[in-house]
Write a structure and sequence with these properties.
Layout (H helix, E strand, L loop, with lengths): L4 E4 L6 H9 L4 E5 L3 H7 L7 E2 L1 H11 L5 H7 L2 H5 L7 E2 H8 L8 E5 L7 H7 L4 E6 L2 H11 L15 H25 L4 E5 H6 L1 H12 L47 H18 L10 H27 L4
Parallel strand pairs: 1-5, 1-6, 2-5, 6-7
Antiparallel strand pairs: 3-4
């Protein structure tokens, strides 16, 4: 069994699309959002722990109630879940591999879980040679995608910005935390095991991005990776979140690169205000934005009221992952 591959990044940044494209390769097997490492840590276990036989059934019950891990466990055959009931203690890694589960054939295996960007050290404890691909997207496009996904608007053109300031600010600050976590993790793992790619470059030149990833994990590019019709059979379409990933089975749409331009001007200004410096570092160009006096007054007043609560909320969400 070779070293695993982990796809990481903030939500709505193309992580599922990238995982789906890679999985069209004949030698790649990647599970979508099992969130097992997050769940195991949330349940109070560390990578160095051994779980006694009498605690294993209780642990699986705990995991089945934590975040997206519960969806993953419910999708597994009963015999796989029951395989964790052992007569001998199991390590953190053994439980992880039983519940993933790891293919027995010699393939590039692994997973995509958004929270794994906060658990790189745990992954390296288990798999010192693990490889990571982080995909980054313009935060303005990320927020636009979340606004539509969460039904804050019926379409990209019907967003009422004054109702979405708090929601947008929260995702901008969370995006910033994910990017910072990725930057820290990259320093920890080194360039030979960590590859950061942009969603925009991936759409514009998928072959170049895929060549870089294939080189990272030691496989050769296969044309089937670019077959969008095959992606129509992706595992995500049998999940509850299928509605949010319809673009996966469609040809690459380069218009998504500039999707953020459909974001209302006050929300574009909000993005530059909250995460502009990080956007600059990543090469995302700012827009020439002119707000009316009333817009400026409303935005400043609203932010003065809601930002302390949003910062506290974001801090709480991140701390729950850094347990």
């Amino acid at each position: 069994m070779g070293q695993p591959l982990f796809i990481v990044g903030y939500g709505r940044s193309g992580t599922t699309l990238l995982r789906s494209v890679l999985e069209q390769h004949s030698a790649v097997r990647l599970i979508n959002e099992p969130e097992l490492i997050f769940a195991l840590r949330n349940a109070g276990y560390r990578t160095e722990d051994l779980v006694a036989p009498e605690k294993l059934r209780t642990l699986v019950l705990q995991l089945s109630k934590i975040g997206l891990c519960k969806n993953h466990l419910h999708s597994l055959p009963a015999e796989i879940v029951n395989s964790t009931c052992s007569a001998t203690p199991l390590s953190f890694r053994e439980i992880y591999e039983k519940l993933l589960p790891v293919p027995s054939v010699n393939v590039v295996w692994g997973e995509k879980s958004l929270n794994n960007i906060f658990f790189v050290q745990e992954i390296l404890d288990m798999y010192p040679g693990a490889r990571f691909v982080e995909i980054v997207r313009d935060p303005r496009s990320v927020c636009l995608s979340y606004l539509v996904k969460r039904k804050k608007a019926d379409s990209e053109s019907s967003i009422r910005w004054f109702k979405c300031l708090g929601f947008t600010a929260e995702h901008l600050l969370l995006w910033r935390e994910w990017i910072r976590a990725g930057q820290s993790a990259k320093k920890q793992t080194g360039d030979s095991r960590w590859l950061t790619v942009s969603y925009e470059c991936f759409l514009n030149d998928p072959r170049s991005t895929l060549d870089s990833i294939c080189n990272l994990v030691g496989i050769s590019f296969e044309p089937s990776m670019l077959d969008h019709e095959q992606r129509g059979n992706d595992q995500v379409f049998s999940s509850r979140g299928a509605f949010a990933h319809q673009n996966i089975k469609r040809p690459f749409d380069v218009s998504r690169i500039s999707a953020y331009k459909k974001l209302p001007v006050p929300l574009l200004a909000l993005a530059e205000r909250l995460v502009g410096n990080l956007m600059d570092d990543l090469g995302y160009e700012r827009e020439t934005i002119k707000l009316s006096f009333l817009q400026i007054f409303f935005v400043n007043t609203a932010l003065g009221i809601i930002m302390p609560g949003i910062r506290k909320k974001v801090s709480g969400k991140v701390s729950k992952r850094l347990i």
